[in-house]
Amino acid sequence: MTDISKPRRRGRGARKLARETAATPRLPTIRYGIKPVEVVSADQLETIHQASLKILREVGIDFRDEVAIEQWSAAGAEVRGERVHLDGEMIEDLVARAPERFELTGRGPNSRFEIGLDTVAFCPTHGPPNIRDLEGVRRFSTIDDLRTVNKIVQMSPGFHMASGFAAEPMDIAVPWRHLHINHSSLVETDLATFGMTTGEERTRDSIAMAEIVYGSDFLRDNVVMLGHISGNSPLVWDSTMLEGLRVMIEAGQGVLISPFVLGAANTPADVAATAAQLNAEALACIAYSQLVHPGAPVIYGQYSVAVSMKSGAPMSGMPEVSLLNGIVGQLARRYKVPWRTSAAQSSGKTFDAQSGYESATSYMAGVTANANLMLHAGGWDEAGMVTCLAKLVADSEQNLMMATYARGVSFDRFDEALEAVGRIGPGGHYLGDEFTLANFEDAFFSPKILDYEAFETWELQGLRDMWERSRQHAQAVLASYEPPPMDDAVREELDAFVERRQSELSPDVV
Amino acid sequence: MTDISKPRRRGRGARKLARETAATPRLPTIRYGIKPVEVVSADQLETIHQASLKILREVGIDFRDEVAIEQWSAAGAEVRGERVHLDGEMIEDLVARAPERFELTGRGPNSRFEIGLDTVAFCPTHGPPNIRDLEGVRRFSTIDDLRTVNKIVQMSPGFHMASGFAAEPMDIAVPWRHLHINHSSLVETDLATFGMTTGEERTRDSIAMAEIVYGSDFLRDNVVMLGHISGNSPLVWDSTMLEGLRVMIEAGQGVLISPFVLGAANTPADVAATAAQLNAEALACIAYSQLVHPGAPVIYGQYSVAVSMKSGAPMSGMPEVSLLNGIVGQLARRYKVPWRTSAAQSSGKTFDAQSGYESATSYMAGVTANANLMLHAGGWDEAGMVTCLAKLVADSEQNLMMATYARGVSFDRFDEALEAVGRIGPGGHYLGDEFTLANFEDAFFSPKILDYEAFETWELQGLRDMWERSRQHAQAVLASYEPPPMDDAVREELDAFVERRQSELSPDVV
Predict the structure, then answer these.
(1) Which residues contact B271 (CB under 8 A, 6 or more apart)?
(2) Hey, what CATH topology would domain A26-31+96-407 get?
(3) ipTM for the complex?
(4) What pTM was computed for the model?
(5) Taking the domain B22-409+421-510, which CATH number applies?
(6) Which residues of B touch A131 (CB under 8 A)?
(7) Distance CA B441, CA A160 (A)
(8) Is A404 at the interface with chain B, CB within 8 A?
């Protein structure tokens, strides 16, 4: 196993400074101590796997991208137009090249963590075009909102990485948007992040910006950025995403490969067959990534929701989605590729009980399936249409709790604790016991946002429900924000890059 | 395996009538299709098991009950005063007598279900002294409130059984309360229920009332009632509860044996050692039940929460509680005794996001640990101080979803669904496909209380959050209430019994 405790060369004064600065306590690499739930038997898993291979061989999959088609053709795949038919052996050989684990790092202290089959990491939401702000107003999000999200992420202990487009800055013209999204997470946070990967040119911009901050030497040897490569289910990978994939992995960065499953809308109305299709999609693109660059760090992704037949809206937290999580986890472990799921996914139109039920269901479905990257684990609500700032801090706390659960049961103090049982005996109480006093703080998680006051105390304290408490907590977190140190020269270079690229890219071309 | 589909003799006209009446669709016996998460290794489990035996042997456990002390003494246990020291072999021999599965039944159609190591059943909350009513007012609960709860339970499809004291009727004098609690669940519902077991006399009343409704012949051969036998942790079983246990199982009914764990307050500040202590408590009382009546139907219970060191309040939904769930599940499967956990447990002072997070965490912790009885799975909030009527119906829906998840993945339509993948092909969509049209309703759960409308639609529909939607849903359920048929003579006998016992029991003696 890689030793991740050893500090690495970072090359610039800014990073040295950052290392020396006391900062938000960060979750370290979290290793699973719990063994995952299994939702299908080994035989059933093999049935799904074989069905995926059959789909890729007989139905085929579209790579709507000239370069990819040429590469597949050169590799000996059967290509008819945009459609590629892949045989199982080629797929399995390519997928076997993907690493079982890799590290991600930001520029901040304690920002290095591992993503592997036995670890779990938490990343906030990405994608929503709306913000639910700290006054509870729901509106289009702006670049200022994105900065606010990133500031809260930076100051919250529950996130391993920033998510890049944590809120879509709708006030920035589309051709310029990727620059500002990258800029904000690189400047407001010192964490690893998602870089924008919608097309070759924008991805090159993302890499160039990471190089300014981290230095090109550092970037060659360290993953500081992931690209989110979304599939176009059923069975299509398009050029925009594949260009992004190539640029990211050629620069030594990582990619998250996510089929986009709207159950029964772009997959069959059947859980097992949905798994077979999404697995075919994931396998084809993971294989492609390894064709482009053997050993490239990839994460087996999937965005899986059921679809409301009433409104057409995605439904997360559904039992079928939990089952899909379980299957994908079992598949990913079979392929020895780390995998991602979505946590804290909810459809509440306010930060209400529905938000809570659905979020926690998706959290627990992911962790009990031993997911390795919990995406959207912070702020997601309204089926991904809104980033809720109050929920962002509430989810950060949930992440800490999930990490505790994931780590499992410690036996380090077991014998000592049993002595206390003998000491206290039947009918006694433990509150004043030496073992309790020495260990209760570590032994049981103590939430700050969840409230455990008696009703009467809670009443006296102003009847603050979870929305109100989270909102106030988020305000306090935001007020405590300190920008992570960045060398002035680096910052100027980064700003100048954005300015130059803006002048080159017409805001009228979408 | 017992054939549970075969109808049994019920003996009275009322029950025949009930069987013929169309009623609320009921969850059938739910068998797990998912394999449980394992939070400790086989070796670690053995370590905990051995620690429990060591506690029982060396520290001992108090049975504060003369009859029990005599029985233990006669059985050859080492008894010093109230303290019993038990050796491992005796414990294991006795526990081995407990059945791996048994059936419960009510008097209603489809009210028979199985509790076994491979099944899960859902029961609403019991215990709260307060109600959060349909106007959102939080106040002491009354007998009318209890009746309302039972009416909603009767009309909700997500409950296998009624919970007896689903809300404490604070307006009834304590010596009379058990009569009215039993009366309400026997009359307002046609489901199996919890009978009151606080002491010998009250438990005899519970059994007598069940005999009136079901007939004594039926009662001898069928479990219609469970007694909830709570421990007095650490390591005490008291007379009140043990008397209840004896009366229940001598009448052929079942008991739920629940150590009452307030982590770090009445157990060591250590998860594994807490498990060892609670397991010692559970083993001792399960063993005792089998000493009293070999083969008596028992459920390995446990009420486990962490305790807030700030307010002293129980904290459910905590990661340590989820881990305890996992351990108890592994232990119960080792002993081959069905086990219970608590679901839908939350501490929200309103039905807010906290209620949702904590409820869903405890639901998922229980189901992924393959719990066999999910107690409190309906209406629990405010750390068990309140029964929330709106949450009761919301949790009923969650129960249906959890049942779907628990059942796991079906492969019945897999081949047919894969044909759809070939038919649709890359880039197509499934919504109009014949397979989708034939199967989408079954394939994906469709909630009624969780909302998936777009924000704009939701706004137009009156900005109803989950509390408001659940409240309205509960009102509609209540309005649809139809009393389950009961023979007039039976009802008169039951009412007369309550009246007679009230006249015998002074309301002044608590």
Answers:
(1) A409, A410, A443, B263, B320, B323, B324, B327
(2) TIM Barrel (3.20.20)
(3) 0.95
(4) 0.95
(5) 3.20.20.480
(6) none
(7) 39
(8) yes
